[in-house]
Write a structure and sequence with these properties.
Layout: H1 19-88, H2 93-107, E1 112-120, E2 125-133, H3 140-152, E3 161-168, E4 175-183, E5 236-239
Antiparallel strand pairs: 1-2, 1-5, 2-4, 3-4
C-alpha cells in the first residue's frame, strides 16, 4: 500500500469584490438620494401651493364680504344720478308749474275749490284735493265727475284718478271733498296754452276715464288709485282756502 504525501505549500485563496456589484450599489445609492431630494422638493412645492390656495380663499372671502357694500354703492350712484338729472331739469320747472296751475284754473268747474296741490317732478304726477259744494242746486258728485273729464281732456294732463271722496256739511252748504291724481306731459307743459290744443272739443262732454266710478250720493267712495312712486325729489306744494270765489266755466 502506497501513501502519497504532498509536501508542497498550499496557496491561500483571497476573497475578491466584484466591480460590477460596486457599480450597481453606487447607482442604487445615487438614485435613492435623488429620489429623496425630489420628494422633498415636491413636498415643498405642495406646501407652497396650499399656502397660495389659502391666500386665494381668504381674498375670495374678503370680496364676498364687500359685495353688499358694492351693491349699495351702485344703488346710491343710480339714485344720485337720478337726482342730478332731476336737478338739471329744474330750470324748466317754473314754466311747467305756471302752465299746469293755469290749466287747473281753466278746467275747474263752478262751485269747486282747490285746497291743496302736490307736484312730483320725478313721476310727473300732480295730486290735488278740494271741495265741490251744492251751491245753486249743483250736484257735487256730478261736479267731481265733470272735473275728472276736464282733467283727462285738458292740454297738459294725460289721465285722472279719483283716490277718495268724503261728504261734508249739510243743506245748501253740503258737498264732497275729493282727492285726484293725474300725470302731465312734461314736453307739452313747456309750451304756452295757445300752442297745445285740448284733447276734446268739449272737455265737459268727453267720456269719463275708464276704471273709475263715481260713488252714489250720501256715501263716500273711491276710484282705483294710480300707484305712486317713492323716492322722488321734494314736491312743490300750493294751498288754497275753501270758500274763495269758485272758478266759473
Amino acid at each position: 500500500m502506497t501513501i502519497k504525501v504532498d509536501l508542497l505549500p498550499t496557496r491561500e485563496k483571497k476573497f475578491g469584490i466584484d466591480p460590477v456589484m460596486i457599480f450597481l450599489l453606487l447607482i442604487i445609492i445615487i438614485f435613492t438620494v435623488l429620489f429623496f431630494a425630489y420628494g422633498k422638493q415636491l413636498e415643498s412645492g405642495i406646501a407652497n401651493k396650499e399656502k397660495e390656495v389659502q391666500q386665494l380663499d381668504q381674498a375670495l372671502n374678503d370680496l364676498k364680504a364687500k359685495l353688499p357694500n358694492i351693491d349699495k354703492l351702485k344703488s346710491d350712484n343710480a339714485r344720485i344720478q337720478q337726482q342730478i338729472d332731476t336737478i338739471k331739469g329744474l330750470k324748466n320747472d317754473p314754466v311747467r308749474y305756471a302752465n299746469l296751475l293755469w290749466e287747473l284754473t281753466e278746467i275747474l268747474p263752478r262751485n269747486t275749490w282747490i285746497t291743496s296741490i302736490n307736484v312730483e317732478p320725478g313721476t310727473r304726477s300732480v295730486t290735488f284735493g278740494g271741495t265741490a259744494l251744492a251751491l245753486g242746486g249743483a250736484k257735487p258728485l256730478e261736479t267731481i265727475a265733470d272735473l275728472m273729464r276736464n282733467v283727462q281732456n285738458s292740454r297738459y294732463f294725460v289721465d285722472a284718478t279719483l283716490s277718495g271722496t268724503s261728504q261734508v256739511g249739510s243743506g245748501d252748504s253740503s258737498g264732497y271733498t275729493f282727492q285726484l291724481e293725474t300725470h302731465y306731459d312734461e314736453n307739452a307743459a313747456l309750451k304756452p296754452p295757445e300752442e297745445v290744443p285740448l284733447k276734446g272739443t268739449s272737455p265737459a262732454a268727453a267720456p269719463a276715464p275708464s276704471g273709475t266710478s263715481v260713488p252714489p250720493p250720501g256715501q263716500p267712495g273711491a276710484g282705483k288709485a294710480s300707484p305712486a312712486a317713492s323716492g322722488t325729489p321734494a314736491a312743490t306744494e300750493a294751498s288754497g282756502t275753501p270758500g274763495a270765489t269758485p272758478k266759473g266755466r
